[in-house]
Write a structure and sequence with these properties.
Blueprint: H1 6-15, H2 35-43, E1 50-52, H3 60-65, H4 72-83, E2 89-96, H5 103-116, E3 120-125, H6 142-165, E4 171-179, E5 187-191, E6 202-206, E7 217-226, E8 229-237
Parallel strand pairs: 1-2, 2-3, 6-8
Antiparallel strand pairs: 4-5, 4-7, 5-6, 7-8
């Protein structure tokens, strides 16, 4: 935004808008995210404690080469501070196969991804773009990039699955968005903190004979996780 503490001021301004009940900030940069901003999001009555911060890598040397503007120490400190917030939801994006990525750096990225406890992780293969500073660097063999992307992607899938498993048997407030594309007899719902279309859905297979109004909030009991998909039952209107 080009304004000092611009996002913090934006949060305050949005909170004053009548009728706005829920909001979230997408795409936080490690280089410009502050502990004060994390606090402002967590303390807000309107904004969800949703932290979408694409770190791309965690190895200190790689972060410098990739010009992320924040070193390993700061990146980890920000993530840990986010994670300490009540009901925090943390999404990130990683890149595998950058020209300067050594096996050791890649291993460190894999280990951190496995250990931290992200809620959602997207993994992309490095793509050599002419407009980037890495374009003229010596590139890794395509085979290595593909292997690393696949391996890191498998770790990311397990991390997300673990996050979903922790939700089983919980009762939460969710919005019923409509009929699921999975099946005409299933409803698609999502917790308020999830971003529509990117964080997944909870399939409602039991409405408890409640009147269902799309866009309405309900208390939902998460009953099980089947093949990476959460199933739930409506309990009452929230």
């Amino acid at each position: 935004m080009g304004i000092k503490d611009g996002l913090i001021k934006l949060i305050g301004a949005v909170e004053k808008i009548e009728g706005v009940k829920s909001a979230r900030i997408l795409y936080l940069y490690p280089s410009t995210t502050s502990f004060e901003l994390i606090d402002a999001i967590a303390d807000s009555k309107v904004f969800q404690s949703y932290y979408d911060m694409p770190i791309q890598h965690i190895d200190d040397r790689m972060l410098k080469v990739m010009k992320r503007g924040a070193n390993e120490e700061k990146t980890k400190a920000l993530l840990e501070y986010m994670q300490a917030k009540e009901n925090a939801f943390i999404r990130t994006t990683l890149i595998a196969g950058h020209p300067h990525e050594t096996q050791e750096a890649f291993d460190r990225l894999c280990q951190y991804t496995n250990d931290f406890g992200f809620d959602r992780v997207n993994v992309f293969a490095y793509s050599n773009e002419e407009s980037t500073s890495a374009y003229k660097m010596e590139q890794l063999p395509p085979r290595v990039i593909k292997q690393r992307t696949k391996f890191l992607g498998e770790i990311a899938s397990e991390v997300v699955l673990c996050a979903l498993e922790k939700m089983v048997d919980k009762i939460l407030i969710a919005v019923v968005d409509g009929t699921s594309e999975e099946h005409e007899y299933l409803l698609s719902a999502r917790p308020l903190i999830w971003e529509r279309d990117i964080d997944g859905e909870i399939l409602i297979n039991d409405t408890s004979d409640l009147e269902v109004v799309f866009g309405r909030r309900y208390k939902v009991h998460i009953t099980q996780l089947v093949g990476g998909q959460l199933l739930g039952r409506l309990l009452e209107v929230a």
